[in-house]
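Entry 14: structure prediction run for Alpha-pheromone receptor. Input pasted below.
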Amino acid sequence: SDDDFLTRWDGKGWCDIVIKLQVGANIGISCAVTNIIYNLHAILKADSVLPDLSSWTKIVKDLVISLFTPVMIMGFSYLLQVFRYGIARYNGCQNLLSPTWITTILYTMWMLIWSFVGAVYATLVLFVFYKKRKDVRDILHCTNSGLNLTRFARLLVFCFIIILVMFPFSIYTFVQDLQQVDGHYSFKNTHSSTIWNTIIKFDPGRPIYNIWLYVLMSYLVFLIFGLGSDALDMYSKFLRSIKLGFVLDLWKTFVDKNKEKRVGKLLTKLSSGKEFHNPFSTDSENYISTYTENYSPCAGTPISQAHFYVDYRIPDDLGRSQNKSRKNLFASKETDDI
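Run finished. Output tokens:
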């Protein structure tokens, strides 16, 4: 990145690998997100029995959607390379492709296609989720998806964010590529042995935003998945496995102490305020002296000053009262018969 970057290491070996990974990643991100959103749609729709996660059908389908197109494009990129690679200032290794129609067909349009497919499935997932929003928890459990509502929501948010980034970016890249199409393709001229091994070093004058876009998405992935409960449990197990569990214990002790301090301050504030007056409270001594003198088990239930009916009768008193009522009832019937 210094002024003398033209005389620095030319990146042979490293850049040969990186440019292929960049080409694959440009399409691979859209393919992977589309595969995730496709599976979420299949789970929510639940119109057929889902294949087992370890079944070959499931594995092959996921691999085809996620890897087939990126690997194919990585292979085709050799046909499109004008130079072995280039090095851009502040941006590193770059793939220099032929500005012809074949580049659009074999490379640029696939990013747009998969981003569009992902956007369509994302819309379908939103529709099905809204339609079955009351049953989502049960659907996730009954389909043996291995997801709970939190994990499902985290995946859904992640997919939507990536699609909202990649879909406009793929449209922009596709339009820009169409504007640069010029001339016809010739493999012989494109792979001329006289210029193939020439390492082009150039200063584009501005950042190449797709490089930094991936850095931003990497941080985004960590924020969404790296701070969840599952990830934190994994970090905890790893630290304890390398005998650093005491760090977690110290942190837990620190958090507990702060929690106790906050609770103590809250209780202090509450106790220093005005005493709370309960409108339903009664003077127990006056109440007892008032109602226990004339209390009889057979008498009516005494009433507190708060206008609550309180039944002080024990089960034996209640039984005797009921027996006495029955005897009086039978006696009155016999009198009527006579």
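Notes: The radius of gyration is 38 Å. Will compare against the previous run tomorrow.
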